[in-house]
Amino acid sequence: MQTTEGKQLTADCCIVGGGPAGLMLGYLLARAGLSVVVIEKHPDFLRDFRGDTIHPSTLEIMRHLGLLDELLTLPHQRAEKLQAEVAGQEVTMADFSRLPVQCRFIAFMPQWDFLNFLARKAAAFTGFTLLQSTAFDDLLYEKDVVAGVKTLQGNESLTIRTSLVIGADGRHSQVRTKAGLRGKSFGAPRDVLWFRLDKVADDPEWGMGHKGPKQNFIVIDRGDYWQCGYTIQKGQWDELKLAGLDALKHSMAQVAPFSATRMAELDAWDKLKLLSIRIDRLDHWMKPGVLCIGDAAHAMSPIGGVGVNLAIQDAVAAANYLIPPLKKGHVTLRDLQKVQQRRQFPTVATQFLQIKMSSNKRKRTTPSKVPQMIGRFPFLRHLFGRLIGLGFRTERPRYMD
């Protein structure tokens, strides 16, 4: 049982980070009867421009958990295909219609709605605790083994003692830094500028919910506004700011479905958010008493929108391997290694494809041969649909009672 002793909590597991991986794992552990504390530094989940693609692989997990029907009552758009505009022609790049799952589509859903849904479902279990406005400070050690975390709630400290700490705190993970875990960075030649445009009456209807990329511009239908992404060269941000906001809007208008005038509401630099793309991977996701999953273990490029779904798959694999030893009160290093061994191949394979697709070796002015290949070999759109929709390895929850 979870107990409170002054400014100290005791739980079977403490998860740092209330993102998709953290909340999914917290839900699964609590559902299995374990006590779990999830700490989240922010007071809520309302942050713009987070990954919002819920792929067929994740929807299938929600089906197995009996949560799918209720999840799909939340506002979302569906994409049965992913299309791109290349050289003035619209090309189907990925087709999900033949996937061996119930939901053969990507659901575009604001991430805060998905996270609130998971948190609400997890809260139905007595062993689940979500501590928001609670910042990770440091790892707690006993005899060189991680035995908990030190946190800050405003100016007050809170210690959480546990058998296992999970780092699910994203690509800038403090857990992996404090644990001294090291890895490799593979770089990325592009960054993304995200911003929003309110819808107006004469905007076109894009029923897919996702239109793009048209060269290097992406549009996502958010209901009453468009979420827009404009990719730039790595390190180009300062140069663009020197040239001025009007110059940037004119540049974007060359590849966007919006004119520079249509983007008039984009009148201040603070309305743009720079996403610095990085692709990296830890050599070892763990040390005694601590395990990293999701972006904390392997930061992904936004290509394909797969990051959220890989994180969810990590969480399910972690639950499958760790619930039995957590119930016994002793998690070994070997138990933690099994999680990485299970998830290593899909991580490496996905990052390999992302690196190849984002390579700068081909000049940006040279048309990609991929759409031409898909035109000649239509089966490729179904292959890409499987790779994007299901990934290289899917996970299914084992412990659901």
UniProtKB/TrEMBL annotation:
Pfam families the record matches: FAD_binding_3
Keywords: Oxidoreductase
Domain annotation FAD-binding: ranges: 11-335
Presence of the UniProt keyword Oxidoreductase in the record: yes
One example GO MF annotation: oxidoreductase activity
NCBIfam families in alphabetical order: PRK06185.1-3, PRK06185.1-4
Name of the protein described by the UniProt record: FAD-binding domain-containing protein
Native organism: Pantoea rodasii
Lineage: Bacteria, Pseudomonadati, Pseudomonadota, Gammaproteobacteria, Enterobacterales
